[in-house]
Amino acid sequence: MIKETFLATIQAEIDDLKKNGLYKNEYEIVTSQSADIEIFHQGLKKHVINFCANNYLGLANNKNLVEVAKKSLDEYGLGTASVRFICGTLDLHKEFEKKLAEFLGFEDVITFSSCFAANGAVFAALFDAEDAIISADLNHASLIDGIRLSKAERFFYKFDDLSDLEKKLQEAQKNKTRVVVTDGVFSMDGDIAKLKEICDLAEKYDALVLVDDCHATGLIGENGRGTLEHCGVEGRVDILTSTIGKALGGSGGGFIASKKEVIEKLRNKARPYLFSNNILPMVAATGIEILDMISKSKTLIKKLADNTIYFREKMLEAGFNLRDKNAIHPVVPVMLGDAILASKFAKMMIEEESIYVVAFSFPVVPKNEARIRVQISAAHDREHLDKAIAAFIKVGKKLGVI
Question: Which domain holds residue 372?
Fold first, then answer.
């Protein structure tokens, strides 16, 4: 009886999600991740142009990187079959961590199976009941879940309200250690945190700063060093968490960068590091190659920036409501408000116009702030961008959005 009731309750919740346009569909991709992909839909393969991947630099199917990965498979096999402190540390891991630390300007780096795992590790390992974590309210789910694992006192401030942050810092003065936690780029909106002002306040009230830079590492800043470079706060942020699963090849894995003492403690106290396999050998091998690539040439970073400016300008000219008219990030939220409308818009873009985009609605974004989150890539050529813009205009007019 309990089993039947349990399953019936779940089915009712699923039906309600579908009714309200909140159900998350999944299309099967049958090619490598790139600007041009094929999906399996309604029993047939369909070619679409991809505008919703985190493949910011277009490296997910880079032929040279694939060859590097193949070579690492020949030399190191599929994986370590062990956690790092037992027999799971390869020379590739250490080389990649050293190179990544140098690239980002930190003393040391520790890698994890994902940035979700890294954010699930950092707070419980470093902060206890005497400490205070002061978190931006729109932080990524992985930060929210990671903070919940710590016994530290929690404060929350509105992500762009510095007076609110200062108030929370004042309230936390009684705590032993204080840490301000923010996304570098808020992934649903493309907003970049006010890191200079945040660092100023943190220094004024003797607090640490932790930044999750998943949507910035490798693509934001003149050299791709992320929001710390973009905001001019390199050397002022104490802990950086980020991913290898977006601009840096898209193959998965995450990391934490900080002082040597912090990383050493994490190697001994971070549960997702101690009790789970680390990044695959091929991820470390391709990561080393990618860091060399973007250190030698800024071509992909510049192309991504140029593509983003072009797409944003044309969409604004067409009359679409973008989340921030002055934003520079390749996450471009096309605001629609209603979840059912957003779901219908995305479905028409895919099925009628062959433009692969996804509707985002509650609980991924706040209620009544549903949107199509477009993500621009260096893999997109001008033809890709023009086709997407034309499709947005066509569907937007059909649905009365513009």
Answer: 20-50+298-398
